[in-house]
Amino acid sequence: MQIVVCIKQVPDTAEVKIDRKTNTLIREGVPSIINPFDLHAVEEALLLRERCGGAVTALSMGPPQVEAALREALSLGVDQAVLLSDRAFAGADTLATSYTLAAGIRKIGAFDLILCGKQAIDGDTAQVGPEIAEWLDVPHLTYVSGIDEMILAEPARITVSRLVEGGYEQVRSSLPSLLTVVRELNEPRLPSFRASLRARTQAITVWGAADLDVDPERLGIDGSPTGVSRVFVPEYDRQGQIFAGGPEDQARALVDLLRSTRLI
Amino acid sequence: MNYFLTAEQELIQQIARRFARERVAPVAAELDEKGEFPRKLLDVLAKTDLCGVYLPEEYGGLGGGMFGFCLVVEEISRVCSGVAICYAASGLGAIPILLFGTGEQKRQYLPEVAAGKKLGAFALTEANAGSDSFAQETTAVRDGGHYILNGTKQWITNGREADIYTVVAVTNKAKGARGISAFIVEKGTPGFSFGKKENKMGIRASSTTELIFNNCRVPEGNLLAREGMGLIVALKTLDQSRPGVGAQAVGIAQGALDLALKFARQRVQFGQPIIQFQAIQHMLADMATQTEAARALVYSAARMIDAGAKEISKSSAMAKVFASDVAMRVTTDAVQIMGGAGYMKEYPAEKMMRDAKITQIYEGTNQIQRNVIASELIKERD
Ligand SMILES: Cc1cc2nc3c(=O)[nH]c(=O)nc-3n(C[C@H](O)[C@H](O)[C@H](O)COP(=O)(O)OP(=O)(O)OC[C@H]3O[C@@H](n4cnc5c(N)ncnc54)[C@H](O)[C@@H]3O)c2cc1C
Ligand SMILES: Cc1cc2nc3c(=O)[nH]c(=O)nc-3n(C[C@H](O)[C@H](O)[C@H](O)COP(=O)(O)OP(=O)(O)OC[C@H]3O[C@@H](n4cnc5c(N)ncnc54)[C@H](O)[C@@H]3O)c2cc1C
Predict the structure, then answer these.
(1) Model pTM score
(2) Across the interface, which of B8, B15, B43 has its CB nearest the CB of A191?
């Protein structure tokens, strides 16, 4: 089976500092790592390859130094690595990022499965995975904590457990599809000796905007409708209110309250 | 100190270091406290290719020799020698197969050990055969195409957890030391079971158990070398593996030194960091010097073995005896430098001190090592 894993290079800290003037992340001086959730995606891809055969491609969009993250993925054992890098991609929000990544995946070729992390520890939006799936018009399953069944023969399908609040949800989808994964899925491996040696000399494919079938207007900062007006930690100062009495009393109290606050 | 490692050796060291720091360090104290076998960690280690670092490439290994093995053991021991010994004891179980196995035995057992899919163990010691390994009481009686094993092995590292056991037993009592043989026994063979798991002072993440043989039928194809070669198999295996115990000791000493140094920089008494006191400085200087000397000796012994040297008993014993005595001294001094904090479980210094002690005892006590070194010296004189 053909698997594409999207990996993002992120700063190695849970507390990313924010430039208060520009409201963007300050990345200088912070060592970079592969987004931790993406390591679980890589691990699952490698486990699936061990079980079903095929090949795993690691894909990332970012500046040239992201090559280090892709080389690390190669040393974990992925078969090939593709970097989407171009000045035109800079300043992308999640929409432009997912648009570009989807174009990269189309160029890589036929795939059975795309794996993403649940979210990136710096951007934290958890939007890129589902957005890629929409661009490619394939189903997506988020918060995957276990792959319960995988059938490659037609009709190809996959059954997964999703981590939801208070439990698990088992869902099935056709293939190809896209999964975003959580930590509970597996125990990521470390680089292996043999793959590390190979990774030192292996070429990483780099594609710019000209290599992709894309609309330039949708790339980078120009293709990013998101405007950041302020970054802040939300405050939870709302108070809940519990009504007593029988159903009718409670309903009356609620209606009174809604009326008095002019909500109805 | 520069040991002029090759690019491959540096990579081995780097991967082992990452394994130790990223995966072992966060759970070491808990494994020690609970005496829990680190199965998940060994599964992660298996995928790094390091389980077969010392095995030849034709058996799925990396061909990195005992030197490569020592680099891995040292790096893991720097963080937790309890985890390191699970790895090292598997090697101890595989080395006799590598040294004395037939082509078929090697092809059957070594690739799985190299891939980390199976663990090895080595069983020589019995209740009445400790340092005196000739005093074996476990018997192996030939019966058609099988040997029937009876007896109990004691204090076997990786007991119950390992899949492949090299077991020493008496095949002909009348022949004394020449009547002892070695066998490969697989877990699950009828008549082979495990006794109680020992509750130990240190290396508590490792499993130490009895192996019980009760009319256990082992196919004759599992005999290692020839009948009567058992003690040679055991002694040659230990000659090869002893630098590994030395590497374990070097790792423990280095871990303790790192910790003491960091603590001494931070701890303030009498208005200054305690590292400003010359008494502390001299202790640290001695600890660092001794650790480096032990490392140099261990690396030299391992390189001699890998170069195919014939006479390795003395060097191998020297590496083990010196490094283990250093580990005991350095860990004790690390606790001393850290004062009361060193004695508390909040810091790993006390664990390192407990872990260090075993390196002076197993794979031949340090008294026995000195006997070996002395007898080689005496031989050399004429
Ligand atoms: C309001 C806002 C402001 C931003 N400002 C900046 C900025 O100034 N500078 C800047 O550099 N970034 C900025 N970003 C971040 C950038 O838009 C995101 O990094 C990118 O779009 C991915 O979004 P995310 O980090 O939330 O990823 P998520 O959607 O949380 O990531 C989910 C998964 O998608 C995949 N993925 C995400 N990004 C990539 C990628 N690049 N390559 C491969 N796979 C990927 C991974 O598998 C990841 O686990 C900003 C984001 C937002 C929302
Ligand atoms: C945690 C642990 C793990 C072990 N793992 C294994 C394993 O995987 N496989 C295995 O086969 N064994 C294993 N052993 C056994 C170990 O190798 C023996 O404990 C060791 O060889 C010493 O034997 P003994 O404990 O019976 O001590 P004894 O032989 O009873 O010695 C007691 C004391 O007498 C001294 N002494 C004995 N004879 C002499 C002499 N001739 N000259 C001077 N002093 C002497 C010893 O040095 C020691 O100080 C393990 C032991 C431990 C504690």
Answers:
(1) 0.91
(2) B15
